[in-house]
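Lecture notes, unit on protein representations.

Consider one protein chain, 135 amino acids long.
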Amino acid sequence: MEKEYEEKKQQLDERYQARKQRYDERFKTVASTSAPSVEAKVEEEVIEEAKEEIPEEIEEAIKPEVQAPVEEDVLEPILTTIEGIGRGRARKLNEAGINTIGDLAGAMAVDIGKIVSVPIPTASEWIKKATEIST
């Protein structure tokens, strides 16, 4: 399991470095043609995107292979059962009062988008999946 984790971490590190290089190149282009405030915004976007993506992928890499069986009707599925919602995003949603799949199903896409900084179509897709799960 530790070897798989290290391999996944290495892959993510390589992807991060490749992405960073692409953004650095884009950043240089933007920097040569725009004001410093645009440069800061591009850099901030890169950092936020990396923060959101990498922890979720590491979480997937270290998930236990075997989980204890749980009766489906006893527990409501948790937010992280929705693809794209990892622990970090679930935590932000919880802080905003969205604690269950039912809460997510009843939320507005605009609000969800603002809470976790995702595009409205992504938030709409999550709400649609939550609605399907909760019915």
